[in-house]
User: What shape does this take?
Amino acid sequence: MICLILIVACVNIINLVTALTDTNVFIFELTRNNLQTVFRDMQVFGISRTNIIIDLFICFQMLLMVSSILTPGTIFLMVLGAINMAYPQLSLYWSLVLNLVPVAVFILLCYVSKSDTQV
Assistant: This one.
């Protein structure tokens, strides 16, 4: 049941991407309609009890939070290991510093720039 809901949600996102040409409009619509899309898809599959919807949505949000925490850390460590393997004369400390510079610039730009510039 959850797999079907996720498949329908992915199809809805793909349809939204192909329907919208402007990136700003896409991000606005995605953040505004995310919750409504999940509830509508669950109603299509006949899940009408509020407790089940809330429990599934909380599990979905927890999965998103865990993946959004683990994925950047994994990529960071992979790049750190790649720099260490490509340049064995560099110590792990300097590989870490080289890897932190683009991450710090990106975080700084996210805090400083406007939302139109970020998209």
Helices lie at 2-19, 23-44, 50-86, 92-112, 115-118. The longest helix spans residues 50-86. The chain has a mean pLDDT of 74.
